[in-house]
């Protein structure tokens, strides 16, 4: 499955990529953060690898709710704690517009940037479109750009087809 699905708003492509990516190690996280312009140096990204994995895991737990899982209060509590730890808060500009910002240490800024994007998606009312594939062998993150926002598979050609065929075979055996 590709890293980006057609229809993902440009402003949220980095978030989609962050949620989709399975970081193999700190070097992989560092390369990803530099690719997206979030970490100026390799060492600054390496210092936040564990924090990035924690943030990604918490956001994925919230994503699963968008595809039918029960809400996870502990994930919300942990995410609120992380938001506080990274000092993410609203800031008002002289023109009267507000934006989220963070006073996190410079090494933590890549993770803070991803959390800010997730909060902006929630604020914009599109977070419900960030989902985890329902196929238990897949669990890929994807952005549901369908008009009705009712997709449940990361890819109909792969996971959806496989699961529909499995259910068909089960019905035939019964």
How many H/I helices? 7
Q: Report Rg.
A: 18 Å
As a percent range, the share of helical residues equals 40-55%
Report the strand count.
4
End-to-end distance: 33 Å
How would a textbook summarize the main sheet?
2 strands, antiparallel
Poorly predicted segments: none
Strand order of the largest sheet: 1-2
Account of the 3D structure:
The chain has a domain at 10-128. It contains 7 helices and 4 strands, in the order αααααββαββα. It has helices at 13-20, 26-35, 42-46, 49-65, 73-85, 109-124, 156-173; strands at 88-92, 98-102, 130-132, 141-143. The strands form 2 sheets. It has a two-stranded antiparallel sheet with strand order 1-2. Helix 4 packs parallel to helix 6 (109-124).
How would you sum up this structure in a few lines?
With 174 residues, this protein is mainly α.
Topology:
Elements: H1 13-20, H2 26-35, H3 42-46, H4 49-65, H5 73-85, E1 88-92, E2 98-102, H6 109-124, E3 130-132, E4 141-143, H7 156-173
Antiparallel strand pairs: 1-2, 3-4
Tag the structure with descriptive keywords.
single chain; about 170 residues; two-stranded antiparallel ribbon; about 10% strand; mainly alpha
């Amino acid at each position: 499955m590709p890293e980006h699905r057609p229809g993902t708003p440009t402003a949220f492509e980095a978030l989609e990529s962050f949620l989709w990516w399975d970081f193999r190690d700190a070097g992989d996280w560092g390369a990803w953060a530099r690719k997206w312009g979030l970490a100026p140096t390799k060492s600054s990204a390496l210092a936040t690898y564990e924090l990035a994995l924690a943030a990604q895991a918490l956001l994925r737990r919230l994503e699963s709710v968008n595809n039918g899982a029960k809400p996870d209060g502990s994930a919300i509590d942990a995410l609120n704690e992380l938001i506080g730890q990274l000092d993410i808060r609203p800031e008002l500009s002289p023109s009267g517009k507000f934006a989220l910002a963070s006073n996190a240490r410079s090494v933590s800024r890549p993770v803070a940037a991803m959390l800010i994007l997730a909060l902006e998606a929630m604020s914009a009312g599109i977070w419900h479109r960030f989902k985890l594939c329902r196929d238990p062998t897949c669990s890929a993150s994807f952005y549901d750009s369908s008009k009705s926002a009712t997709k449940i598979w990361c890819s109909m050609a792969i996971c959806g087809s496989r699961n529909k065929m499995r259910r068909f075979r089960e019905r035939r055996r019964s």
